Fold each of these.
Amino acid sequence: MGPPIKLVMKQADFVSLVMPFKDKVFRLAKRLLVSREEAEDATQEILLKLWNNKEKISDYKNVEAFSMTMTKNFCLDRLKSKQAQNLKIVHSNYTDNNASLQRQVEAKDSMGWVSRIMDDLPEQQKIIVQLRDIEQYDYAEIAKMLDMNETAIRVNLSRARKTIREKLTNTHRYGIK
Amino acid sequence: MVLNSIEKLIEKYDNAETTLEEEAQLRAYFESDDVAPHLEHYKPLFQYFSLSQQEQYTKDVPLKPKKTQLYQWISVAAVAVLMLGIFIPNWQGESKSFANLTPEEQEAITQTMEAFNLVSLGMNKGKQQLNSLAMVSENLNQGIEEASRLSEFSKTTNRIFKNK
């Protein structure tokens, strides 16, 4: 990036700035909010927030990292307020009632299983797996985005990967039997 | 790839010790068709990662060239400055009366007043001269009136001559 010269950012400049990572914002939002619609709404709001702060954007060295941090905070806030509205209870009731049926359906689809296992991870681990295994950021970048040290990130990531592997192994055996 | 090294990589992977390059190797291995049977259960995981990576945000974002909020705040700031201008003099307490001032201050005020008086004296003189000018103009008007009377007179004389 060049020197921080303040320029009036036009729509086209903004779009080309945001283009490389808008999908990553969306995918992180979807990882956390699960529903595609909600993730789209969240992405739209984040991009609009960036657009409305476009004068300040040129001050940031790494707009992408900044946007990912924003996405994480935005979605976690949204989850919190959803929890406050008891929406989550409705959601978990639904899954509990239909758990066995849903599992039977998904057992055929191993990818669905992975997705389900990911959904069950704690939020922190979900975010880290998303940023590392799907978006392939290096540890330094993830550390910056999450304001954590690299060791803590590795510990969380290892925990998540082991959980996924364990559940996947069980599923696999179950599938064979 | 040698199976042994894949197994080692998986162990490293589980401990979050693999580099991005090593993780790319793992992905490549599990996306290939010859995955060892006892490692088969890792396949959906890496397939899932690759698939998730392709998901895209397809909606448009309505980017309107929004008025910067700065302009809105300028009016607020202007009102604030005005209010300050009105209230600050009051906060400074009652103005001092002449008697409360120190002798130096009193002297300064008297001198200033004298200077003002001198100026106003000069002004008055100037005004008197202006008055005489006004008198001149009055006389001038009288002269003009008399001149018009004179022309009237000449008209009548002309008539008399014509009638003759």
Amino acid sequence: MNARLLPYMLILPVTLFLGVFFLYPFVLVAQQAFSGSDGFSMANFRDVFSYWKFPISLKNTLLLAAIVVPVQLALSLLMATMVSKMKKGRDLVLYVWTIPLGISDLAAGIIWLAIFEQSGFLNSMMSGLGVIDQPVNFLSYQHPGVIFLAIALAEIWRATAIMLVIIVAGIGLIPKEYYEAAEVFGASPWKRFTKITLPMLRPSLQTALILRVVLAFEVFAVVAALGGTLMPVLMGEIYAYQFDLLNSNAAAALALVVLALSIAFTVIILRVLRVPKGASI
Amino acid sequence: MNRHSKYMAAVSGIAMMCSAAVAQADVLFWSTQARPVEEAQAMRETVMADAPETVDYQANEDGPWLTRIRAELQAGSGAIGLLGALHGNFSAMEADQLVDLGDLGITSNSETFNTLSKLGTDTPQYIPWMQASYIMAANKESLQYLPEGADIDALTYDQLIAWTANVHEATGQAKFGFPAGPKGLKHRFFEGYLYPSYTNGVVRTYASDKAVTAWEKFRELWEHTNPASTNFSFMQEQLLSGDAWIVFDHTSRLAQAFNERPDDFVAFPAPAGPEGRGFMPVLAGLAIPETAPDKDAAKALISYMMTPETQIATLRATSFFPVIDVDLPDDLPPAVQAAGDAVAKMSSAHDANPGLLPSGLGNQGGEFDRIFNDTFERIVLARQDIRMVLDDQKPRLAAIMDETGAPCWAPDAPSEGACPVE
């Protein structure tokens, strides 16, 4: 085997796979989004943008990402530092923390629905403690804030682990020498965290944030379980276009909007957290 | 791979081939009806028990149902032998994708249904299969709060509002239940009940002053509606749990309540407004796609489904009523008896104002329903100004009617060409 060809041979299967199952469908979706009754048209985008729920669902999606992702970032950094300091039982704690990752997002939504429902755990607990006389319906159209909070909580519970795993791996890669040197010079733990851990974690943070932000724009099942139609998000609208209205063209157009959002934020994260050339661990 | 695992692989391979061969001999009955597990099981075990062919009955949600049949039609070959779905599902397909069924010589006992089943052509594209409607049901405990002089079988919307208000006051809880959840059939209430009762129309009168009154009345009713209604989709659940005492829903979505506790609930006709007692049927049909592998077997199966015995077995399994003349036995399930009485009273009421299913909308049926759902969400949930919302939605409705060219259906006055929004 020619040594120069070998790398290309090795990535060929993956490239083929991505080409057939990602690029080709993507081209089809893009085609669908831009086609109307007579050839090329922007009508699908006009349709989607002029619908009264579009600004609401865009706002909800962005707001949810803006609240959930920073909280998850802080939490996962905290948890990762704790885990990396542990001598015993480290694996056990990691396993327990990553359990929510193994649960499908719809199941996670249903778990939190069981808590917040009118006949759910929270209500029975509160009435058991005598705080309320009769069950309160938290997830009703009268309390949009509570629905939002419940969804944010469920998302934080469900998907923090994915960032945690990446960051734990990243922390493990930082050479001990830096910390030893910092200790010699008498740097406080906080200083060590901000001056060594955070900068050295940049590549891992990049990956974790991109993954998490893109997934946050795709939030769907948890919202469907907890909010129903009361809290429209972009993915829910795509589903409605495709399956309730049988309008694949509009669904494709909206899917491209989500894709554009994802790409834009990926580029921003890549630039903000870029690792200078030549610098490496 | 050792010898043992090779042997296992060969066995499982043969097993897979066998099951594929068996599956091919069956007629695949691809349905959007009888989806709940018990109903699907009853379809397989009792309704299809004596079928001329072995039948593989598969019930699906509307989206996946349409996705697969569309894919098969596009590919030009398929495995689906028989389609079972609502009128609206079929009207979203092209007539030339379905086999003409005129030569079967089977018709329903309703001229309206027979005309609908032609989907705008000269011959039936599907055979009317079974029918249902939407009715009201109440917990018997609520009857003591009926307003004075009100007859439960001839209620008006005002009396319904007064009744739900009495219950609200007496129990401290809003106990009217409305299927406004994501899978609920609320749009049918607006299209077939509220609008006909108040405006004697649906499309023409969408933004009329009478429509404003209708929505004002519905807002009043909503004051006494369980706020969790936006999560309700099958009102039988809330009837049984006691979260709602007075409800509106599809007869088959109330059936479980009557079957489990027949003595606790009553079924009664929908209320009347100034323009009469509006109500609407539900019609399901059977059709054969052009890509069916064995069209004769599918036709034989349709003939079997339309015999009086099978129609009664279907009624027991799904709470959907026959569309041909049959003598109903006396030992029907409680839900069927209750619903049958309520529908009979509704259609024979002196102020009955029967409407039809939206027709001629093709694949815009979902968009049409969305107009009414959006109107509800904006006026009732978001409390936007009624006149403003109706004027804002009006051009969208007009665009759908223009695009499809659908003529008016009852109770709207007939139109030449597309039904106008006045």
